[in-house]
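Subject: Protein entry, chain in single-letter code together with its fold tokens

Category: Structural biology, sequence-to-fold work with a learned token vocabulary.

Notation: Tokens come from a learned vocabulary of local backbone shapes, not from coordinates.

Start of record: The labelled sequence and token lines come straight after this line.
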Amino acid sequence: PAALVGSVGFSVYFVTAVQGNQLTLGFRASGASTSDAIAVETATSAEMTLVIRDATGNVSRITTTAANMAAGTWYGVVARWDIANDKRAIEIYDAAGALIDSNEDLATDLSTYVPDSNVATVSLAYKAASNANDVYFDTFVISDTYDEVTAAMLDYTSYTQFTSIAWQQFYRRPNTLLRM
């Protein structure tokens, strides 16, 4: 979907529990098929996963392994992908912007998992219907480059903090909670 290279960052707060087991949470860009997507999902053991999946169901996941997220805490999530150059990463930050855990893969051949280039839907603050727990989201930042979104951007309080006019034009005021 959208771009075969990009990054996304957002803040998330799990109110009652961190739901596991491959439930899309926060970001999903999907093609005409529901299988065809680049998405962020929860994973078992209170971790997060970047998923790249084509329309035929070929799926590639990269998951944090030591984030150990808990309810009642804000986290920053940054996911990155560059399918043509076989790069993908997922990072989890605490509320102060300190890195808790990250996982980057520069070796997997991602050509098998190329999603359809036709985007049908881009969803922000997306929460899978099977996730019964309340979740809050704040400050979404999306880029068409691998390295542009940083954890620091999740704390911006003014569009003037973005260094380019393009970022300033697409800035959305943070601290507007979306309860899902």
Observations:
- The chain has one helix and eleven strands.
- Helices lie at 165-170.
- The CA atoms of residues 21 and 43 lie 5 Å apart.
